Amino acid sequence: MWCVNTSHKYLVNADLLNLKGGFVGINIGTDVSNLPSAQDVVAILKANQITHVRLFDSDAHMLTALSNTGIEVMVGVTNEEVLGIGESPSAAAAWINKNVAAYFPSTNISAIAVGSEVLTSIPNAAPVLVPAMNYLHKALVASNLNDQIKVSTPQSMDIIPKPFPPSTATFNATWNSTIFQILQFLRNTNSYYMLNAYPYYGYINSNGIFPIAYALFQPLTSVKQIVDPNTLFQYDSMFDAIVDAAYNSIATLNFSGIPIVVTETGWPWFGGVNEPDATVKNAETFNNNLIQRVLNDSGPPSQPTIPINTYIYELFNEDKRQGPVSERNWGIIFPNGTAVYLLSFSTSDRVSANSSSVFCIARPGADTTTLQNGLNWACGQGQANCSAIQPGQACYFPNTIQSHASYAYNEYYQQMHSVGGTCDFNGTASTTGFDPSYGSCKFTGSSNSSAGDLIPPPPAFGPVTPTPFGDSSRLQVSKIWSLVSAICISLVLPDVNVYKIL
Description:
This protein is α/β, with parallel strands linked by helices. It has two domains: 2-335, TIM Barrel (Alpha-Beta Barrel); 351-472, Up-down Bundle (Methane Monooxygenase Hydroxylase, Chain G, domain 1), CATH 1.20.58. 28% of the residues lie in helices and 13% in strands. It has 13 helices and 17 strands. The strands form four sheets. It has a nine-stranded parallel β-sheet with strand order 7-6-5-4-3-13-12-9-8. A four-stranded antiparallel β-sheet has the order 11-10-16-17. A two-stranded antiparallel ribbon has the order 1-2. Helix 3 crosses helix 6, helix 4 (89-101) crosses helix 6 and helix 6 (126-142) packs parallel to helix 7. This is glucan endo-1,3-beta-D-glucosidase. It comes from Ilex paraguariensis. Keywords: Cell membrane, Disulfide bond, Glycoprotein, Glycosidase, GPI-anchor, Hydrolase, Lipoprotein, Membrane, Plant defense, Signal. Pfam families: Glyco_hydro_17 (PF00332), X8 (PF07983).
């Protein structure tokens, strides 16, 4: 099925995207000191109802652990691998046989991301980028996998110098030849354009031109509406404007029928003294609003019927990365399985804090020795039913003290709160109205509607000591031009440099 927006000049092949609704996935980086085992990572994905993941490489442990889960997987060809594959069809065939064919279909591999921002991060590889994509696609054809698995390459917004207004955005002419070949490949193979889009950098480098609400998907006042003067499209978020800028850039090279998937976006939750906008509150607001925006199944103003499938950057903080403090604090989950802040990947939100159900869970960031003592007491002297957290049972994974303690604490609390049992455990527990159940692991819920201490679980504000048992222990948008419009009167704003330190 082809969807046409009669008010603009693009034609997008909707068959390439999930017409049942947009999805939000997650990037899984590996520059992590205490990276959980692949099995525990998958348990965390299941616990958070994450249905799509992007790997930056083709790690065998992850691909094996993801088998028979139904989770859609985008595997990555590293930048280091691009050069060899781009010069050798046999190297491409070997890569497909080893990293794709060996796992498919048990592991639901749906796409291959060739490199990461190759044109701007390793420009010397530009001449072999498209050959690498072609060789990989031909290897998929030889394995009869080309209909199930798409090949593309993620690019940053660096290659679109002036993304606002979106209607006049174009690619940097320096890269036109390579980009033309990329788009030709995507069209011929019925694939999609992979875009890395970070409103965080658009905001912090705008020198106050853009209101933070615009970057965080929050409502704008009538005097701060952002409008494209050429199309009169109103942009409620910088995210939508960035995506539309990419759509128009594609159209200016006379290509149509190529949808856009956002392979990276997000917001850091902690930064240095000169990064005041990298906060837990802003990261939580951005990512929750992003999820709700994507899951409403609509596209940007120029493509309203095409969902913007998106991958959040990222699952864990990559504490080994170089650069500013914020570069190491994009994760939504700590390696021990605790959440940095509350986030729901599902359209059916978990029980709200106004619910009559009350649960007792371990506090994120609690001392692991004290948690272990509390876990031992709850399952022993406290007589909680801890069978579900034994090996092979529904709540065993994630195999962390935090997760197991939450289940044991809740079992004790549900049995004993009516006769005076408390949810404290030496300060390592708290009550919440948010249901911590996940997958087949169900937490017993209380009907106590008069609990005075009902609070959501507090966010953890730093790395937590790894568990002593079990297996566990990017972007530039140059010279953004903005237009702030009220009652159809426009004001063209100056150039703004926006970048992501890699």
